[in-house]
Write a structure and sequence with these properties.
By secondary structure, the protein is an alpha/beta fold. It has a single domain (about 5-65, about 100-445), classed as L-arginine/glycine Amidinotransferase, Chain A. The chain has helices at about 25-30, 40-55, 70-75, 80-90, 95-100, 135-140, 140-150, 215-225, 240-245, 270-285, 300-310, 330, 335-345, 360-365, 380-385, 395-405, 415, 420-435, 445; strands at about 5-10, 60, 110-115, 125-130, 160, 180, 190-195, 235-240, 255-260, 260-265, 290-295, 315, 325-330, 350-355, 375-380. The strands form 5 sheets. It has a 3-stranded mixed β-sheet with strand order 2-1-15, with helices on both faces. A 3-stranded mixed β-sheet has the order 3-4-5, with helices on one face. The chain is globular.
Length: about 450
């Protein structure tokens, strides 16, 4: 039976703004308070999805969250009508209003961790929504994320859904941004690679000194247990604390893997040689041959990697078995990074081509191609069981493009976030979107009596 890796990209939400909310994310902080363009952001994301479909890749779409999150503001003591809540929050605590308006759910690499049926004890695809408890504006996402994923992957014969881990620092979980999988074929048993920044309970593990380590070892192990993964198919690795302190807030800012290949910076992991040896041995036990593409710091510094998002790329297997690397325009604009990529594709290695996309609106807020997608390995039967409304096609692309043009503003600033009419516009847009994607009532405003 044929199997596929399907990329489900996050659809940028109508309140896309540069709130500077993510401490440790260099791009997010450096572009704080600039005006954004939600319409352009959504169009850029859709263009990447459509281009990959046209190249023959399986592609889906994952809906954004309801924002502003008025319910979250009410839990913090703001009261009155929805409009009153927004205006009072704007007057008394603008940072809380900005957080409640964040469109960060667009980066669906943080939506969940996914294990394919070939790896799990019960032979189903398992999803665990990420609690994202390191940042308030992201910690409020997982209830809606769980409902959206449940509406997309609803057939219990094939899909299992787990609630987010406890929302405490000891179980900080950032989803697939710190998880990848290696395999000979997507339908065969593979090796799941969990990367963590610190241990919550074992002080022998070093920790970063400047920026927070968002993923804990304990969270990664809990997800592996929930998914019924076998020890011989799991590798845990600690992210290098020194690169976290340079702005590598997730592993997908310093490494990306696919199939039998890991593309990574030489400073990505602690005890790198031992990590690579374990990956090589465990993949060999599954019949695969692990390949490491190690980028030396002499060619690309960590600062270059963070500013260009070289490793926040998509590594995709083409029909002929060669690989395509999808990178943001910022890689072409960085002389050292582009020189490296030019050499990489000329070495007769696994990466045969580099494809550049303009994702400036997302990049300025700290998310590149890899942040925008959640990878789900599915066999033919499982793919047929996915809600067909979320699978990207040429007609769906056209429909979503027209939907964006009708509902999205072309400018967003703090003053716009304080406008109660924005909530009305967003709810109208999302209500229509759930009909387009056949999701049912997944948003809180749709579920109110």
């Amino acid at each position: 039976m044929k199997s596929y890796e399907v990329n489900f990209d996050g659809l940028v939400g109508p309140t896309h703004n540069y709130g500077g909310l993510s401490y440790g994310n260099v791009a997010s902080q450096s572009n704080s308070q600039q005006s954004s363009n939600p319409r352009e952001a959504a169009r850029q994301g859709l263009a990447k999805m459509k281009a990959l479909v046209d190249m023959g890749f399986q592609q889906g779409v994952l809906a954004p969250q309801e924002r502003p999150d008025v319910a979250a503001l009410r839990r913090l003591g703001f009261s009155g009508s929805d409009g009153d809540v927004i205006q009072r929050a704007a007057k008394e605590s603008m940072p809380l209003l900005v957080a409640s308006c964040s469109a960060s759910s667009m980066w669906v690499a943080n939506a969940a961790t996914v294990s394919p049926s070939a790896d799990t004890a019960d032979g189903r695809v398992h999803f665990t929504a990420a609690n994202l408890n390191c940042k308030y504006h992201r910690s409020i996402e997982h209830p809606t994320t769980s409902r959206v994923l449940g509406a997309m992957f609803a057939d219990e014969r094939h899909f299992a859904h787990h609630a987010a881990l406890p929302a405490v620092a000891q179980f900080g979980d950032e989803g697939a941004a710190n998880h990848t999988r290696f395999c000979r074929d997507y339908g065969e048993a593979g090796v799941e690679f969990f990367v963590y920044g610190r241990s919550a309970f074992d002080t022998r593990y070093p920790a970063p000194q400047k920026y927070p380590a968002r993923q804990t070892l304990e969270a990664s192990r809990a997800v592996a247990r929930l998914h019924g993964l076998h020890d011989d198919g799991v590798v845990y690795a600690q992210q290098n604390p020194a690169v976290i302190d340079q702005g590598v807030f997730h592993n997908d800012v310093i490494a990306v893997g696919n199939g039998e290949v890991l593309f990574h910076h030489e400073d990505a992991f602690l005890n790198s040689d031992a990590v690579l040896a374990e990956l090589r041995a465990k993949l060999a036990s599954k019949g695969g041959r692990f390949q490491s593409i190690r980028v030396p710091r002499a060619a690309v510094t960590v600062e270059d990697a963070v500013r260009s998002y070289l490793f926040n790329s998509q590594l995709l297997t083409r029909a002929d078995g060669s690989m395509l690397l999808v990178v943001p325009e910022e890689c072409r604009n960085n002389e050292r990074v582009w020189h490296y990529l030019t050499q990489l594709t000329g070495q007769n290695g696994p990466v045969a081509e580099v494809k550049v996309f303009d994702l400036k609106q997302s990049m300025q807020n700290g998310g590149g191609p890899a942040c925008l997608r959640l990878r789900v390995a599915l066999n033919e039967t499982e793919l047929a069981a996915v809600n067909p409304g979320v699978i990207m096609t040429a007609p769906l692309y056209d429909t979503l493009l027209h939907w964006v043009d009708r509902h999205y503003r072309d400018r967003m600033s703090d003053a716009d976030l304080a406008d109660p009419q924005l909530l009305v516009e967003c709810r109208a847009a999302l209500d229509e979107l759930t009909q387009i994607l056949k999701l049912g009532s997944v948003y809180p405003f749709q579920r109110q009596p």
